[in-house]
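Exercise 7.
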Amino acid sequence: MALGNRYKSAPGAGTLAALILVLVFGSPWYAEWAIKNTNPETAGGWFLNLLAWPRWSFDSDDSLREIIVGDLKAILLVVLTALFLYLLPGSQLARARGTISQFFAGWASYVFAAGFAALFTTLFLADPSLVSAFRAASNGASYGLFVGWIVGLATLGGYRGTR
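Solution. The predicted structure, written as tokens, is:
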């Protein structure tokens, strides 16, 4: 028996999509594959490299601070996505599930989460500056803009909050 959209919450589905994106495409194995096997000068290669933006790693050659900051960015991306999915009112105000407002609320949640995750993790770098924080937030928001539609699709049709 398949569970229909009646049992799927929009925030839960969007958070699960974000977690899968981070775990699969942020993994060191995928990032290494994307760097070695794609051409970033083509649209497809650029997108496949962009998918690896929230990298997490366990590389012993990196300093502990670099490992923690990289992993923190990936963790914050998932946590902030869940938070923004609960906070954005688009799905709450929609009369029917599966409307375009749910899609855009999910997408926007991922854009905001990626931008803020990058901004917050920049503060933990060895020598943070305001311009480096702005650049990191810009990279994060760019990632969210081009990848967030996946989270938006995942939220379509789900109910909002508690019943």
